[in-house]
Amino acid sequence: MNEYKVTVIPGDGIGVDITREAIKVLEKVGEKYNTKFNFTTLKAGGCALDEFGVPLPQETLEECKKSDAVFLGAVGGPKWDVLPGNKRPEKALMGLRGGLGLYANLRPAKVYNILKSASPLKEAIIDKGIDLLVVRELTGGIYFGERGRGAEEDVNYAYDTEKYNVNEIKRIAHVAFKAAMKRKKKVTSVDKANILESSRLWRETVVEVAKEYPEVELNHLYVDNTAMQLVRDPSQFDVILTSNIFGDILSDEASMITGSIGMLPSASLRNDSFGMYEPIHGSAPDIAGKDLANPLAQILSAAMMLEYSFNMSEAARDIENAVEKVLEKGYRTGDIYTEGTTKVGTKKMGELVLEEL
Ligand code: NAD
Q1: What are the residue numbers of the active site?
Q2: Site: Important for catalysis. Where (predicted)?
């Protein structure tokens, strides 16, 4: 029997409701595949501020470091919005990303055939299919570069710096090409190489890395064009590889075109196996604890954990297929409900997925 140690951080708001359902799914899949998950549940975010006075207690971070993977719900809520910057729940996310060295953020955006009416795009565009993965560099670039303020001739100025070295670009490019090998074998590298020197190095380096993956088709797009293409014809994309700031913006755009944030998982990886897995949405304080949250993004995050951290692709497909079957049978949580379907709560949705497994 394989055994894995997973640190679970439910966090705040609906994070608590949806991680509960996802863990049941993991346990069931574990039985089938002769795998035991040893879960340790710890606090981060607002609940940690309440109990320990810090958003990310040292014990939580240390335990994560000793784990094979981290499984996170969401953090934050209005109760803590009045606190100063370093005492905000969201600081826990930055602390985990930095502390665990998670440099690659993977965000799939997929439109399930049965949910295509949720997309804001025209049916003719959706009918061509949307199933893409944004691979975003997470620990470099302008969000971490040199910044400052000053004054010239009594006029105030401020600056931030976009800086990447070849090694940073290479390692994120490898993540994208490896992911593409498991998908449709196409990588679109996004930059602004017509203007930015850092983008020109990005492009040169990606071209070099591509030589190690001759089966993968590589093309390059400028970020402004990519933003347009995502709404014009998202079916052209398989894996989008990009920098921290461009990825931040494009991954939100890509999730919006699917129309359902309650369905979208994500992974942040350090290497070929260690990662943190979480839904893309926040803690949804408006519906927390009311059995209203959609647990599917969290459950699909569990599938990503199986795929990337435990090399259990077949089990991951089982979860994805179970989710699809539940949707095909017409069950919906409130966020994806349409007339003629059956509305269910968080727990029932979790049970339905379990039944299909
Ligand atoms: P949100 O994603 O929490 O909610 C936006 C809207 O979508 C709300 O109406 C909410 O009810 C709905 N929603 C989100 N997830 C849902 C789900 N699974 N099922 C059904 N409906 C769902 O974003 P927000 O309202 O801007 O932020 C709320 C809090 O979450 C804030 O404190 C914010 O800072 C935090 N946040 C945390 C993360 C994270 O932990 N990674 C990400 C984004 C926001």
Answers
A1: 143, 192, 224, 248, 252
A2: 143, 192
